[in-house]
C-alpha cells in the first residue's frame, strides 16, 4: 500500500483537471446516480468507488457490516489505482455516477463543489455527535473547502515528519534538531564528516515541496497558504513566501542536500536508499517512510530509524505544533444520490471502533478521535503513538499544496519549485512566478 500512497500524491494533481471536465459534463447532461429525493426508506443500492489497493479489504469489511442491517445496500467498486482517475471521470459524466467516492479532499474535489455536485455535510457533522466527535478536527478541516465539509475521513493519516539516523546522531554527539539553529549546526557537522545531511529525491518535485510547506508555515503561519488555497494568488507575495524560498536556497548553497540531489529519485528508491545506507543523516518525508524502510531496509528501520517534528524557526509566526502533509483520504457523496441519508449512515461507520481497529491492524494510523486506544496493536506502537499525537495536538494541518490546489495551479507551481531547487530560478523569481498563477 505504501507505493500506492506515493503514486497517489501525483495522481491527486492530475485528477483535478480530469474531474473539472467531468463535473461540467455531468451538469450539462443533468446526470448523476439518480435524480430526485434523498430518502433512506425502502430498498436500493449505493455505489461506492474506492481507490484499489491493499486497504480495500478494510473498506469492504465496513460495507459488509453496514449491509447486514441496512435496507439500502452499499456496493463497493474497487478501481485499480492506475485506472481510478479515468474511471471516475467517465462515470461522473454518465447516468452511472457513483453515490459515494474516494478522494483526496481540498482541490481534488473543488470542481465538483463548484458544479454543485457534492452533498454539503456540514450540517450532518454539526448535528450528529458520531460525526462531530468521531474524528480529529484538524483532519476534517484540512479536507474542507471554504469552511464547508464535503468529506468524511476514511483512511490513515500521512503527516510529513523529519526522520533521522539515530546511530549517526549518537556517533557524532548530536541531538535531533528542535530549532532551525540545531538544524544548521547538524548540516555543518555532517558535511564535515562527508555525510550528506538530508536525503532528497530531487527528480520528484513533491519531495522538494515538503520543505517549502513547512518553512512557509513556520515563518508565516498557516493562514498564508490558506489564503492561497482560497483563491488569493496575491498571497504568494507575502514576505513569508520569499523568506521560506530564501531559506531553501541557503540550504542548497550550504550543501544540505548534497551536490547531486537533482538526479536522485524517490520513486525508484534512490533517496530512501541513501538514508538507509548511512550516506545521508536525515530525510524529510511523509509518514510512509517508516513502512518504506521497513520493507526495503528492515534492520535500519528497527535499529537506526528515528523521527521528530519539523524544527521551529526563530521569529516565525507559525505554531510549532502545526503539521503539513496528507491528512487522509475522504468519502464524498454525490448530490444526486437517491439515498442521501443511507449514504451518511454508511459514512458514520468510519468512526466506529471496529473500523478504527481494522485500519490499525492494516498498518494505518486512523484519524478517529479514539484511535489512541488501539495503537498498541500497530506494527510499531511508538511510531504510531508519535504520529497520532502529532496530528491530534496540531493547531493546524495544512494539506499538501499539490493536492490543495487545482491542477491548473498545482502543476506550474511544482515546476517553479523544481526550478528553485535546481538553481535556475532565484527566490525573487520564484515568488513572482507564483503570483502570476491566477
Task: Give a structural overview.
- The protein is α/β, with parallel strands linked by helices and 438 residues long.
- It folds into 2 domains: 2-157 and 327-399, Periplasmic binding protein-like II (D-Maltodextrin-Binding Protein, domain 2); 158-324 and 406-435, 3-Layer(aba) Sandwich (D-Maltodextrin-Binding Protein, domain 2).
- It is 47% helix and 13% strand.
- It has helices spanning 2-29, 56-67, 84-92, 110-114, 122-127, 129-132, 137-142, 166-171, 180-192, 205-220, 222-229, 239-253, 270-276, 289-296, 298-303, 340-347, 353-361, 381-392, 401-404, 407-422, 427-435; strands at residues 44-52, 72-80, 100-103, 152-153, 158-165, 196-199, 280-286, 305-308, 323-326, 330-333, 397-399.
- The strands form 2 sheets. Strands 5, 6, 7, 8, 9 and 11 form a 6-stranded mixed beta sheet that branches. A 5-stranded mixed beta sheet has the order 2-1-3-10-4.
- Helix 2 links the parallel strand 1 (44-52) and strand 2.
- The two termini are 36 Å apart.
- Mean pLDDT is 89; it is low at 1-8, 10-15, 24-32 and 34-41.
Q: Level of helix content?
A: 40-55%
What is the residue-mean pLDDT, rounded to a whole number?
89
Based on helices, strands and strand pairing, what is the structural class? alpha/beta
* Rg of Cα set: 22 Å
CATH topology of the largest domain: D-Maltodextrin-Binding Protein, domain 2
Name the CATH homologous superfamily of the largest domain.
Periplasmic binding protein-like II
Number of helices: 21
The proportion of strand residues reads: 5-15%
CATH architecture of the largest domain: 3-Layer(aba) Sandwich
Number of structurally distinct domains: 2
Shape annotation: globular
What is the number of beta strands? 11
Amino acid at each position: 500500500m505504501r507505493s500506492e500512497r506515493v503514486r497517489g500524491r501525483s495522481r491527486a494533481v492530475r485528477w483535478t483537471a480530469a474531474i473539472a471536465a467531468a463535473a461540467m459534463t455531468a451538469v450539462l447532461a443533468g446526470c448523476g446516480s439518480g435524480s430526485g429525493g434523498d430518502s433512506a426508506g425502502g430498498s436500493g443500492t449505493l455505489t461506492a468507488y474506492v481507490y484499489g489497493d491493499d486497504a480495500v479489504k478494510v473498506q469492504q469489511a465496513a460495507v459488509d457490516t453496514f449491509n447486514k442491517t441496512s435496507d439500502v445496500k452499499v456496493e463497493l467498486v474497487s478501481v485499480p489505482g492506475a485506472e481510478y482517475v479515468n474511471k471516475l471521470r467517465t462515470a461522473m459524466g454518465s447516468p452511472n455516477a457513483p453515490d459515494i467516492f474516494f478522494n483526496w479532499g481540498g482541490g481534488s474535489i473543488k470542481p465538483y463543489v463548484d458544479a454543485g455536485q457534492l452533498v454539503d455535510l456540514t450540517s450532518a457533522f454539526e448535528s450528529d455527535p458520531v460525526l462531530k466527535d468521531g474524528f480529529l478536527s484538524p483532519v476534517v478541516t484540512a479536507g474542507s473547502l471554504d469552511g464547508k465539509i464535503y468529506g468524511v475521513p476514511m483512511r490513515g493519516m500521512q503527516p510529513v515528519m523529519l526522520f533521522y539516523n539515530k546511530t549517526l546522531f549518537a556517533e557524532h554527539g548530536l541531538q535531533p534538531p528542535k530549532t532551525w539553529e540545531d538544524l544548521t549546526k547538524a548540516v555543518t557537522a555532517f558535511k564535515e564528516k562527508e555525510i550528506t545531511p538530508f536525503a532528497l529525491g530531487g527528480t520528484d518535485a513533491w519531495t522538494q515541496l515538503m520543505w517549502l510547506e513547512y518553512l512557509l508555515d513556520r515563518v508565516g503561519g498557516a493562514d498564508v497558504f490558506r489564503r492561497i488555497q482560497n483563491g488569493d494568488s496575491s498571497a504568494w507575495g507575502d514576505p513569508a513566501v520569499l523568506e521560506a524560498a530564501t531559506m531553501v536556497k541557503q540550504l542548497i548553497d550550504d550543501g544540505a542536500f548534497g551536490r547531486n540531489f537533482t538526479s536522485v529519485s524517490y520513486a525508484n528508491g534512490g533517496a530512501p536508499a541513501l538514508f538507509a545506507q548511512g550516506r545521508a543523516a536525515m530525510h524529510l518525508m511523509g509518514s510512509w517512510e517508516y513502512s518504506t524502510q521497513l520493507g526495503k531496509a528492515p534492520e535500519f528501520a528497527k535499529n537506526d530509524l528515528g523521527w521528530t517534528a519539523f524544527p521551529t524557526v526563530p521569529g516565525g509566526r507559525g505554531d510549532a505544533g502545526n503539521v503539513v502533509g496528507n491528512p487522509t483520504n475522504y468519502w464524498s457523496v454525490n448530490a444526486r444520490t437517491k439515498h442521501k441519508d443511507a449514504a451518511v449512515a454508511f459514512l458514520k461507520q468510519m468512526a466506529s471502533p471496529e473500523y478504527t481497529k481494522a485500519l490499525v491492524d492494516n498498518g494505518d494510523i486512523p484519524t478517529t478521535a479514539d484511535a489512541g486506544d488501539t495503537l498498541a496493536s500497530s506494527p510499531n506502537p511508538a511510531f504510531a503513538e508519535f504520529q497520532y499525537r502529532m496530528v491530534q495536538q496540531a493547531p493546524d494541518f495544512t494539506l499538501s499544496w499539490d493536492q490543495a490546489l487545482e491542477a491548473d495551479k498545482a502543476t506550474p507551481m511544482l515546476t517553479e519549485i523544481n526550478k528553485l531547487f535546481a538553481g535556475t530560478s532565484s527566490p525573487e523569481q520564484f515568488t513572482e512566478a507564483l503570483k502570476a498563477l491566477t
